[in-house]
Each structure stands twice: as C-alpha cells, then as structure tokens.
Amino acid sequence: MDAEGTIAPRYGNFFTGHLLCMSQFLLAVSLTLTALSCSNDLEKKEPVNASSQAINFECNYSECKANSKKLFIQYKKAPVAFNKQTLLNNIRDSLFCCWLGTPWDFYGTTETPGKGKIACGYFVTTLLRDMGASVNRVKHAQCASEEMIRAVCIKNSIHRYSNENISSFIEKIKLNGTGLYIVGLDFHTGFILNDGEDVYFIHANYAGKKEVMKEIAIESTVLSSSNYKVIGKVI
C-alpha cells in the first residue's frame, strides 16, 4: 500500500479486474436462477380456458375438413346405423378448435380460421360447407337465420321459442338428444352442440371480445338475452 493506505496501481488493476469478474459471475448466476424460477412458475399455471379462447391446438385445416367431410358422408348415407358421436367429436375437436379466437366483424367473410375476420352468418355457413353439408355459403350467410335453418336442417327438428328462459331452452335441447344444431336469435346466429356431456354455444361473438367463442350455452349472455330463438338439427 502507499502512504495514504490505498492499493498501489500495479496491484490495484489486478484486484479491480478480479472484483469485476466476480460481480459478472454472480450476476449471471442470479439471472439463471431467476429464469429457472419463472419457467417453473409458467409450468405450474393452469391451462387457458378453451371455452372462450383458442387453445394450444395444431390446426391442419385441410386435413380437418377432409376428415369431417368423410364422416359426414358416411352419416348421411346411414344416419341410424352410423355412430353419430364420432362425427360430433371430430367437429368439436378439430373444425371448431381451428376457428376459436378468429376475430368477428359485421362484414367479415374470411374462409381461413385465424386469418381475417368473420361475421356470425358466414361463420355458420363456412363451417357447414367445410364439414360437408349442402349450403350456399354466401346466400345463406346473408339471409335471415330461420331461412338458412329451413334450408339446411332436418325438417322435423326445427322448433321456435319466444320468451323462453335459458334454463328451459337448454333442457329442451337436452331432451332432443345429442347433435349439432343451428340457432337463430333476434340479431345473431351460431351453433349449439350437445355432445352428451354439456351443451355449448359456438359462434362468432359480436359482444365482449368479439371473436369466435365456445361457451357453456346456459352461461352465454348473447344466447339468454335473445327473446326469439329458432333451432334446427344438422346432425
């Protein structure tokens, strides 16, 4: 040390460099531990609720359409003998999953899930076409939903309800059995799916997040707030 008690320059450079290296090493260790901690926290988080948002699903839409059309053709040829649940599960777990989270727009006409925007009527007719049902995608998307339902749905499955409370409405759907339905509301349209486990409302939602959503039907504000409901079975 020099007369004032400070480290002489020739040793000062050594100790200064040593302390700098140590501080950088400790900083690196700290950042690594923090990153590991954050990673663990992410792994512990609950999965995204698939009822209203797009889930972690690898969508090959061309393949999904091909599989659904194949099953739909088999169902139409022998609706009694065919295992309808297989078709419903395929549509629920593939076609609908691809579309979840696609933005809604009043003038939306996209044919590709996740790209562009879609209106409620076009969502219904696009899905019907892509699953293999006979539908005029543009004409039926733009007409009154009841007209679309009469054109597409099984004739004796069409029912109309006025001022029916949501609980009673859902119970009647359950009594009609498992299936994929189209529902027309005061100013909206979408699908109702009774898969045997629950009843869902799948639609291009104009309220809230304004996107394609899959909701528990009895919890849907849009569905319950409509005074008029007309419904028909597709499958």
Task: Jot down its keywords.
235 residues, disordered N terminus, 8 helices, alpha+beta, 6 strands, 47% helix, six-stranded antiparallel beta sheet, endopeptidase fold (from Nostoc punctiforme)
**Spatial order of the strands in the main sheet?**
1-6-2-3-4-5
Strand content: 5-15%
- Name of the top-level CATH class of the largest domain: Alpha Beta
Over all CA atoms, what is the radius of gyration? 28 Å
**Distance from first to last alpha carbon:** 92 Å
Mean pLDDT: 83
Helix content: 40-55%
Number of alpha- plus pi-helical segments: 8
Order of helices and strands: HHHHHHEHEEEEHE
Structural class by helix and strand composition: alpha+beta
Describe this structure in words.
With 235 residues, the chain is an alpha+beta fold. The protein folds into 2 domains: 1-45; 61-233, endopeptidase fold (from Nostoc punctiforme), CATH 3.90.1720. The protein is built from 8 helices and 6 strands. The protein has helices at 9-44, 61-77, 84-99, 120-131, 137-142, 145-152, 166-175, 221-225, and strands at 159-162, 179-184, 189-194, 199-204, 212-216, 228-233. A 6-stranded antiparallel beta sheet has the order 1-6-2-3-4-5, with helices on both faces. Strand 4 (199-204) and strand 5 (212-216) form a beta hairpin. Helix 2 (61-77) runs antiparallel to helix 3 (84-99). It is globular, with a radius of gyration of 28 Å. The protein starts with 8 loop residues before the first helix and ends with a strand.
